[in-house]
Design a protein that fits this description.
This is Zinc ribbon domain-containing protein. Keywords: Membrane, Transmembrane, Transmembrane helix. It comes from Gemmata palustris. The chain is built from three helices and two strands; from the N terminus they run H-H-H-E-E. It is mainly alpha-helical. It folds into two domains: about 70 residues; about 35 residues, no CATH class. It has a two-stranded antiparallel ribbon with strand order 1-2. A hairpin with a 6-residue loop joins strand 1 and strand 2. Bound molecules: zinc ion. The site of zinc ion has 8 residues, from loops.
Length: about 120
């Protein structure tokens, strides 16, 4: 299990880089995944993997592939956030226009954030 072309320390460095590449396999971007594969190649080429490394790489690669397949089965793009955009709905703290008090149904004049009839305010509500 000794490297023919380089010392064990160099192989350890390559292993560290390869492990970093393993994490890149879980990235969303395919270019990042490809970069992860590229990072793994030097370690795979310079010396034969130990049994532990085979298990580490094998399990991680299988997990990465499973994640990709899992993502594909539910669509090409995973929903990062559910952000229903409603630009027409005024914000609760929008005091630029007269509003209707939610407590007494009275009218709140523009520029005020507090109902003059019952004292209800946006801050408290
Ligand atoms: Zn009111």
């Amino acid at each position: 299990m000794t490297a023919a072309v380089s010392g064990p320390e160099f192989v350890d460095v390559l292993l560290f880089i390869a492990v970093a590449g393993l994490f890149l396999l879980f990235a969303r971007d395919w270019t990042v995944r490809l970069a992860g594969v590229v990072l793994m190649l030097p370690r795979l080429l310079v010396a034969p993997l130990t049994l532990g490394e085979v298990l580490l790489f094998g399990c991680t690669v299988v997990a990465a592939i499973s994640r990709v397949v899992y993502g594909w089965s539910f669509g090409p793009s995973e929903p990062e956030r559910e952000a229903p955009e409603a630009p027409d709905v005024p914000e609760p703290d929008d005091v630029s226009e007269p509003a209707v008090c939610v407590a007494c149904r009275g009218s709140i004049p523009a520029g005020a954030n507090k109902c003059p009839q019952c004292g209800w305010s946006y801050a408290a509500g």
